[in-house]
Amino acid sequence: MNKVFVFLLFCFSGFSSLAQLSCDDFKEGVFITEQESPVQFKIEIVRTATSQTERIIEPSRELIESGYPYQKVSHITLKWIDDCSYRMMYDKEKGSLSEIEQFINDSGGALVQFTDIDGSCIFYKSSMKINGELEWISGKMCKIK
């Protein structure tokens, strides 16, 4: 009986590890991420190996009233550092940059590091230097395609 139990446990653990995703599974595809602060909104990300586009799909009233160009599609270039981290810069060749996008580029871009995977979602932390201080934002993006 114990041998059967151990065998079944081994089989099921093997199958479950096959279903787990890795950082590599998040390098390309379509994702949704939600921003909670400083303003709440939902973004659709379409990513290839070297670039991504971002489009706000559910702006909050606060974002709309702020005057931020939330209807804009942002074009971003990606430089992968390793399987789980990349540096992103806004691509000025594909359109004009907002003040925030230009500020991020002028600061050397943002470093994004994947920290954990839960099903089809990946948790990340993004960092950049602002006025000489390293600032962090954490989030989660879920793969939908």
TrEMBL record:
- Write down the superkingdom of origin: Bacteria
Q: Which residues form the signal peptide?
A: 1-19
Q: Which UniProt keywords apply?
A: Signal
Give the protein's recorded name.
Ig-like domain-containing protein
